[in-house]
Design a protein that fits this description.
Helix content: 10-25%
Number of strands: 4
Distance between the termini: 74 Å
Order of helices and strands: HEEEE
Structural class: alpha+beta
Strand order of the largest sheet: 1-2-3-4
Length: about 100
Amino acid sequence: MQKYIPLILLLSFLNIFSQEAEKSIKKDTLKKAKLPLKVDRKIKLQTDEGTWMSLDISPDGKTIAFDMLGDIYTLPIDGGKATRITSGLAFDTHPKFSPNG
């Protein structure tokens, strides 16, 4: 039984110190933010390549759908400008065309 006394003392001290640490956090330092957060700044990103992207080709073979940075885009199979079809807070991935397009 005496060999457990140092362990019991250690656990008791840890418990006391953890309670004191919780008391030291003032309530006014904890801020609660409501979602969606307001945008302070916007960053415009333009790229011509990506990694770890998922894509799908339309059943008619004319359009590619792909995801990049949490949004889904479509692009003509012959090339051109990509069109963003989803945006917002959700992180959209793995685009998939339905069988009827």
